[in-house]
Amino acid sequence: MSLVVVGTVAFDEIETPFGKAERIVGGAATYASLAASYFASDIQVVSVVGDDFPTPVLEDMKNRGINLDGLQVKEGEKSFFWAGRYHDNMNKRDTLDTQLNVLADFDPVLPDSYKNAEFVMLGNLTPSVQMRVIEQLETRPKLIAMDTMNFWMDIAMEELKAVIAKIDMLIINDEEARQLSGEYSLVNAAEKIMAMGPKTLAIKKGEHGALLFQGDEIFFAPALPLAEVFDPTGAGDTFAGGMMGYIAKTGDTSFENLKRAIIYGSAMASFCVEKFGIERMTELDETAIRERLQRFVNLVRFDV
Amino acid sequence: MSLVVVGTVAFDEIETPFGKAERIVGGAATYASLAASYFASDIQVVSVVGDDFPTPVLEDMKNRGINLDGLQVKEGEKSFFWAGRYHDNMNKRDTLDTQLNVLADFDPVLPDSYKNAEFVMLGNLTPSVQMRVIEQLETRPKLIAMDTMNFWMDIAMEELKAVIAKIDMLIINDEEARQLSGEYSLVNAAEKIMAMGPKTLAIKKGEHGALLFQGDEIFFAPALPLAEVFDPTGAGDTFAGGMMGYIAKTGDTSFENLKRAIIYGSAMASFCVEKFGIERMTELDETAIRERLQRFVNLVRFDV
User: Fold this and answer.
1) pTM, full prediction
2) Residue B290, pLDDT above cutoff 90
3) Assigned CATH class of B2-300
4) Mean pLDDT score of chain B, rounded to an integer?
5) Is ipTM beyond 0.90?
6) What is the nearest CA distance from A38 to chain B, expressed in angstroms?
7) Contacts B263 to A, Cβ<8 Å
8) Dist. CA A223–CA A236, nearest whole Å
């Protein structure tokens, strides 16, 4: 089934203790659509780039079955650029530079072929842009998921809440869940956030895994303990993309299937951090993914 | 099978955002032996108290099948006392006061009936005291586990490493594992620590669960997401006690059984934090424990 992925397609400059990568391809929609492409066959990207964005990367995405009809290419303008530096333990990062460029006045336009998508993933963007996407949908999707960040809670909480009220699943990290709800306990935070609209909440905890809430149900997806995290950039988008790709493939929005989906997302994220940028996400195959999933099974399998 | 539990039996003064408890019963051996008593039938405590320690508490422990022949009662002296205050999020605490009292010159003496115990849990104490216990054992136990803390790494690393070299399972938290190994990644830390002697390593991550390492095997035990943590004091000792109690009950030191044991430990710890001090640990029954274990099963059960 079709999956619309909305988000940035951009350049990143990344410094980690392992080295520096200058001006490499990144962006939430890039990571999410690549991750989803291993599962779903009909992925439809909504984004914007400048004319500086490398055509071969876009061609490669198309070859993976990713539809870029909704990707605007702005002549004479530059793509979104983010530069960041990770601390030694990879859990914190400093933003060194943000150049909005084409993103400054991004008006998402859904091609007609996107307007009846069964699944929608709204990557982290201005809430008004996320809302504009929802408004263009002609039929209500089976599931709309969205990501956001603290920044929008600081400067546009009301607009953000208006979008949150319209979606089915919010995918945010623990700090964001705490800020959005005003609750420290993630159990209490989840209750308040689900009361804002979304039936389901996924809370990402980085190296500590992720929690999935729906009604009174709680599921915990572990993160794979890794000897080295090479570059965490895009792990959250890859997690969301893998999760939504699996849901779109199966067309099944039951809680049992969302549990499977969050494990798929966690597995894809565990690959993402193994190399700089999107590199690892372009070289996977079914066998590697199957083996990785089995490691997740083994990690938490017990009988009492 | 018999389980020797070595550690403090003491008084705590605890401040949390929920209130203050003055001079309540605590101590690593108290929490660990209470947790173990729900599983193992022959628990043998090695500790020391002053004559200020309440006899009814000791009688209650005896009634639970906990052998206190190895508990020294020092006439005219005071029991170990610790006072601490938890921060709002319960993840950090400040030590406000530590009065060693009887612990200052504690010389553990194992009754003859303890010297052939199949299982030993060395709670966090001066490494030389932990070593003195090992030296008094007449037969090599099936499994010796130990806890320790950063403090001993700071002031007695060599003595500590000498004890670690003699044990089978180290149970410490993530910060301690990082300090002991000099590695940030817990996977790398585990490899270095197991090279110091212990075949098995359990790393406690508080609200983020626990990892169990043995050779190339990794198992992850989740923590139960809780709406409120009332008092985290003793959770780590309860975790270790529950784990060792289950191992002693089953007599099975296979990795498969250690996985079950760490889930039992996690379940007991999830009870411990629900009330101040040892209160919750004195009122459990098999039904409550069985239901709690089922919540752990549900929390991580999925099929892919």
Assistant:
1) 0.95
2) yes
3) alpha beta
4) 97
5) yes
6) 15
7) 302, 304
8) 12
